[in-house]
Amino acid sequence: MSRQPEQPGHQPEPPPSPPSPLSPPSPASPPAHGSPGSPQETTAPAPRSRGGLLLAAGVLAAAGLAVAGIVPRMRAESALAQRTREGAIPAVQVIVPPAGGAAQEIVLPGSIQAFEEAPIFARTSGYLRRWYADIGTRVKRGQLLAEIETPEVDRQLDQARADLGTATANSELAEVIAARYVELRKTDSVSQQDLDNAAGDAKAKRAMVSSAQANVKRLEQLQSFEKIYAPFDGVVTARNTDVGQLIDSGSGSGPARELFHVAAISTLRVFINVPQVYSRSAHPGTAAYLTLAEAPGKRFAGKLVRNANAIDQASRTLLAEVDVDNRGGDLLPGAYAQVHLDLAGGTHTLLVPVSAFIFQSEGLRLAVVDAAGRVHLAPVVPGRDFGTAIEVVAGLEPGQRVIDSPADSLVEGQQVRVLPPRPNRTS
Fold first, then answer.
1. What are phi and psi of 393, to 5 degrees?
2. DSSP code for 415
3. What is the residue-wise DSSP string for 328-392?
4. Of 234-248, 324-338, 377-391, where does mean pLDDT reach its minimum?
5. Which of 177, 172, 171 is nearest to 196 (CA)?
6. Which one, of 361, 388, 386, lies nearest residue 377 by Cα?
7. Hey, what CATH topology would domain 151-224 get?
């Protein structure tokens, strides 16, 4: 059979492409109207219902994929927010301070003073004739220290004695005249007025004698001040004069100056300020001893003999006196010493590391953590300082948790997170 030639410009039709497995099959063309064997009603609604189901299935798949991606992200964001909130709570390390036991001894600074001391001034004016005791001389009570030459006082005493003699003579004459007038009055030789005048004159002359005697005694006593004596047993700690110097009478308030200074050092007294927390234990009779830097390893026994029975409002301390026997002369007045007081049965304390204390203008504080994890800034009263740890005598209860090395930003009632415990630094 012969093939007909192709018409110019006519392209052959491509073969039909096979149907895609992903695309829905195209509906068959409906048979021509009036063709034999074809139904009279159309079948178009069936293909549209199948497409809606496929579309709904696609939407549900896309929603499932979206939910599967969003939910883990939301969970991650929630966990991150939780970790952020937990990270905002400061983490702290806490310790439980151990008991320090009863305070058996406290050490307080003190200044050694002489049991008695007195500055020696002149009570009469003149020139220093001689002195007999220099610094460091041990003297007895009544021992002569110096002599003052007082020519003016000597001449005044001579004049006073002469005046006393005149007054005595006048008084004796007045007494004789008065006695004579008494006899003459018995015979009416003199009037009563003359007798009264004579008796009054005699009485006035006796008063003048008494005045002259008092003046003589005054000058004699003033003359006795030419000699300066030691007021008590002790040692001369200062001499501020020399032979030939002009001496003015008086005390330190005037132009006079101190000639000698005498101190009794056989017994010394040391004044200490006992903190208020130990005041009840610092009663008279408490044993004590002194230590000095210049005498290492040596103790000087003493005893607390009295206290002020009042707390000083400025320092909140009790003034107490410790007496020390110094007949050996090993201690010197004016020296600095450490006073050790034996306070048996004293206050029970807790030992807290120095790093745990908070120094504020109101005083020392400790950051205590309660069972709910909240901070309480507790005011405390410190005791002895051991360098790495300090005794707390009040303000902290045994078993309380204390923050070690607290931050400056901690405030009252703040929530904190407690880290696992570590070994106690004071143990």
1. -100, -15
2. B
3. T--S-TT-EEEEEEE-TT--EEEEEEGGGEEEETTEEEEEEE-TTSBEEEEE-EEEEE-SSEEEE
4. 377-391
5. 177
6. 361
7. Helix Hairpins (1.10.287)
pLDDT per residue as tens digits for the range 92-104: 888 888 887 655 6
For residues 168 and 212, give the distance between their C-alpha atoms in angstroms, rounded to a whole number.
9
Asked whether the beta carbons of 96 and 424 are under 8 A apart, the reply is yes
H helix intervals, 187-238? 192-224
Bridge partners (DSSP) of residue 130 are: 147
Q: What is the overall mean pLDDT for the chain? A: 82
Measured CA distances, 80 to 74, 77, 87, 419 (Å)? 10, 5, 10, 21
Q: Do 380 and 367 touch, CB atoms closer than 8 A?
A: no
The CATH number corresponding to 92-103+347-418 among 3.30.390.50, 1.10.760.10, 3.30.200.20, 2.40.420.20 equals 2.40.420.20
Of the listed ranges 8-22, 180-194, 274-288, 380-394, the least confidently predicted one is 8-22
Nearest-angstrom CA–CA distance, 248 and 258: 10
Q: What's the maximum distance between 2 C-alpha atoms anywhere in the chain?
A: 224
Q: Would you tell me how many other CB atoms lie within 10 Å of the CB of residue 397? A: 9
Which amino acid appears at position 104 of this protein? Answer: Q
Other CB atoms within 10 Å distance of the CB of residue 276: 16
β-pairing, 260-275 with 317-325?
A: antiparallel
Place of tokens 């004159």: 201
Q: Where are the domains of the chain?
A: 92-103+347-418, 151-224
Q: Where are the beta strands (DSSP E) in 249-347?
A: 260-275, 287-292, 295-312, 317-325, 336-342
By three-state DSSP, how is residue 164 classified? helix
Asked if 147 contacts 126 with a C-beta cutoff of 8 angstroms, the reply is: no
Residues 106-150 have pLDDT tens digits of 889 999 999 999 999 988 888 999 999 999 999 999 999 999 998
What tokens does 216 get? 């003589």
